[in-house]
Amino acid sequence: MIGWLSFFAALALFFATHFLPARGGLREALIGRLGRRGYFALYGGLSVAVLAWLVAAAGQAPHVQLWPHLPWQRWAPNLVMPVALFLVVVGIGLPYPHTLGGRRDRPFDPLYPGFAAVTRHPLLWALALWSGAHLLPNGDLAHVILFGSFLGLSLAGMRVFDARAMRAMSPDDARIAFRATALLSPLPLFSAIWRENNESALSVRLVIAIILWAVILWWHQTVIGVSPLPL
């Protein structure tokens, strides 16, 4: 019972730290007191600490098996994670301010949307891919709740950010911005002009993503305690 209490307490705190600051002007008040950098440094550290507690609590919760674990199921995260990590790398500093990780220090230019033309929510798609891929090899109740919650949060977050963008912009600006970006579309990848404008920057980020994937693959068993290899 204590294991379940710890897990649900961590889960509740995780969602509280992600939803409460946006309500009642709390985030704006803290930014005014701490500064933007100070606030996001504090918030980022708190989020990482709560996430670490949540992952550890899921591992310590009573094991209630919903489906058996089979070695081949590990292929899902192994095939998906390189894509998810690439989305993380391109999503940080995306030249579209109305999303998680997007740049807010300059206005969005619809003529040069960058990777936002493929998706304006790469970090949220990365979270969806990570959580969805990890559901298959983790068929116990605690991890299904954990990864299922992250999957639902990421998919719902796209609608929330799009709704905020529509409120923040005039109808004409919102229409232009949404026409220049996409929820998810591979079409820009086949455009010679788009590739010419973005190929250099994306190549660098692809290399960074591959390095991150190799590091995570190497340290996964040491940190998480489970081998990610489909053996």
TrEMBL record:
Work out whether the entry's keyword set contains Ligase.
no
Q: What keyword terms does UniProt attach to this protein?
A: Membrane, Transmembrane, Transmembrane helix
Q: Please verify whether the record's keywords include Repeat.
A: no
Q: Which domain of life is it from?
A: Bacteria
InterPro entries tied to this protein: NnrU_dom (IPR009915)
> Could you tell me where this protein is found in the cell?
Membrane
The NnrU domain sits at 7-228
Q: List where the protein spans the membrane.
A: 6-26, 38-59, 79-99, 111-130, 142-161, 200-219
Q: How does it sit in the membrane?
A: Multi-pass membrane protein
CC per GO annotation = membrane
Which Pfam families does the protein's record reference? NnrU
Protein name in the entry: NnrU family protein
